[in-house]
Amino acid sequence: MRQTLQTLYKKPVAMAGVIASGVQNAKKRMFAAQSLVQAEKTPFDLIYEEDIVRLRYYPPLRETAFVVDGQILPVVSSPYRVPLVLVAPLAVNMFIYDLFPHRSLVKYLRGCGFELYLIDWGRPTQDHNHFSLQTYYGQWMPKLLAKVREHSGQQEISLHGWSLGGLFCVCYAAMGDPHVANLVLVGAPGDYHANGVLGRQYQRLARSLRWLDEHTGWRIHNTRKRWWRSPGWANALAFKLTNPVASVRGYLDLLRNLHDQDYVVAHATNGAFLDDMVAYPGAVMQDVIQFLLTDNLVAKGKVPSRAGQALSLRAIVANVLAVCGRADPIVTRECTAAILAHVSSADTRLMDVEGGHMGILAGSKAPSQIWPEVAQWLSQRSN
């Protein structure tokens, strides 16, 4: 009898403890979310900075082993000869590359032996609305990659680009740099019209804009650049609307797990990336709408250029690994595959993996199912 009473007493006490923990965690999540964020714990050196653009270098890890997704891995002490440059897309902050101490792409690649650099495009203001696609791949990348070569002492480099960062890598390589050894393209857009549900919307938009051009001579590049700037909050909303069910489910799951501090910390860290996206400059949006969505130039093997340069993807001879997410609604397999159809590379591979647009770069399954295969592919081509 006494044991039964003790058991009945313990249940409400335990429940009270759960509720108290939930209330405390809810307060932290709402009013002190930044204190919960676990991103960007891997040390780096800032080796070049100009305007809003920064170039990071990740020095060798100090430890002899590191943990990724619960697995203890030895740190490779002898780095590969060819350095690796991560080329970020626009609209995102850099948290995604170093999201958690146990799920950090930069720590993983550095631990695997790659001399590692990352291009951070910064946060464009209204003063940067003149930045076009060509500003990034044609002006900034040559300057930044020259700094990488100077710092590393190597001419050959590998480029790793996610999303629009992958397109920047493709466009830069098409400019004819003979020392780009490898291209890793993760969810990189190519054929915008062969892009599932979004592709059909782009085709409708293209027909309308072509009709306007043919009948009135109106083109988006004839308008003011600042009109087309896409603010960070709008980019964050658009990203979430690609999978609204998952976005809503994420908040419902948070409510159910407010008592679990680890879960709340993970939610705050993911939120720090998803809720803090960066603006697209006006000229970039003009180029995206005209050159990519309407003219679909990359699908034709051409490089989007305001200067009218006749650059072709045929100039690309680097080894190419294209990573495609089976559940990626933003860049489908067919969209990315169009790039490989035009390059002159003798060594190309299309790699299908599980995950959506963010997941294929830094999702929970990426450390075990994607990163090792990408690292192995690069390691075989980096000495």
Task: Describe the structure in your own words.
The protein has 383 residues and is an alpha/beta fold. It has 13 helices and 10 strands. Strands 1-2-6-5-7-8-9-10 form an 8-stranded mixed β-sheet, with helices on both faces. Strands 3-4 form a two-stranded antiparallel ribbon. Strand 3 and strand 4 (71-74) form a beta hairpin. The longest helix has 30 residues, at 2-31.
| Estimated structural class | alpha/beta
Q: What is the succession of H and E elements?
A: HEEEEEHEHEHEHHHHHEHEHHH
How many DSSP-defined strands?
10
Roughly how much helix do the residues carry, as a percent range? 40-55%
Number of helices: 13
Question: Mind telling me the C-alpha Rg?
Answer: 23 Å
Most strands sheet: 8 strands, mixed
CA-to-CA gap between the ends? Answer: 74 Å
What's the pLDDT, averaged over the residues?
Answer: 88
Tell me the strand order in the biggest sheet: 1-2-6-5-7-8-9-10
Give short descriptive properties of this protein:
383 residues, alpha/beta, eight-stranded mixed sheet, two-stranded antiparallel ribbon
Q: What is this structure, in a nutshell?
A:
This protein is an alpha/beta fold and 383 residues long. It has 13 helices and 10 strands.
